[in-house]
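Q: Phosducin-like protein 3, please. Structure only.
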Amino acid sequence: MQDPNEDTEWNDILRKKGILPPKEVPKEDEEEEELALQQQSVVKTYESMTLEELEENEDEFGEEDEAAIEMYRQKRLAEWKATQMKNVFKELGEISGQDYVKEVNQAGEGIWVVLHLYKQGIPLCTLINQHLSILARKFPQTKFLKSISTTCIPNYPDRNLPTIFVYFEGEMKAQFIGPLVFGGMNLKVEELEWRLSETGAVKTELEENPKKQIEDKLMSSIRCSLPTRKDSDSEDEDY
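A: Structure for Phosducin-like protein 3:
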């Protein structure tokens, strides 16, 4: 009697016609095939993961996967570094209204944009441009821009200057409008850095608002200059 599992052309024809049952796959071959599918699935999982996801899920993979995980981690790290190098600005750029969509709304994934609307001849605008130039060098991953207000937004009122808009991935996240918001010509670069850090546009190392320190010193000096109750009583006795 002919073996139905034998590899012959006749048996293949009979299997196609349904006369013979499908050829039995040896158990070892089945296990190897299943393992290969699992490995393909794991590799696909690596490829779709970010650096953070690789670190979060590394405990779920076996020791045999460590080499593959490390390979993809290095790949993702290289991609991240390339993106960071690409997104280095380092200076306060100037744009017109025609550039607005491209430079601000379409700045790119993960990009913070700080845009200053200004006019020449307004001292506080000049001061803020000086501060932003310093911050642009300090925080090169953030895109710092300036634009003459009326060339960017037609008929933009001078009373709203200076104005700073903060965008992230094309969405406005914060706005500072008018001189009172900035505290006038006493504005320090550290205070502006703190204000921008509160929006998320920069990652400051300042531990607290510098303006608060100035206010605390001011209040302390006022308290020191006020006469004490005892001094006041002695003055009354002199009269």
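A: Brief note, in case it's useful. The CA atoms of residues 117 and 149 lie 5 Å apart.
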